[in-house]
Give the backbone structure.
Amino acid sequence: MSNKKQEAKKPFVLWFTGLSGSGKSTIAEAVSDLLNRKNIKLEALDGDRIRDVFPNTGFDKEARIAHIKRVGYLAGMLEKNGISVAVSLVSPYTEARAFARELCSRFIEVYVSTSLEICEARDVKGLYQKARRGEIKQFTGIDDPYEPPKHPEITIDTSTQSIDESVTIIMNYIENFI
């Protein structure tokens, strides 16, 4: 068997990061569906769903960093056991994303760089409005910082790229990666 074929069997971690409403979860779900159809074992770890399982996870900086580290640990364990992972978390802090990267062998950071203005316009849950009114404290992009990745493997901007275009960019990267 050639090295390329052996390499193709190695799992990886796709880590989607960006502001709330940027399109992370939508793109991650579409990529996950495509990879599953290609018979690539993949688990999707979405921030909202994970918080449903761990409802007492806070939103201050320390709690967010701990949450991202836990998800990074889980992603790394799944990867080590032959399962690729698509993580979609705001994951606003460079330090926490770097920790997650270190736990994974084949980490692909996908920065969904959609602007705050576009994310606020898409705010179907009304979270940005609540944060602007002071009803939600420490909301990323409003009164808590988002630290953009300096060197992501992939950058997507859903204000200029459709979901289909974004998925194509990611799938092309994955096909060359694996």
About this structure: The radius of gyration is 16 Å. The first strand starts at residue 13 and ends at 17. The chain has one domain: 11-177.
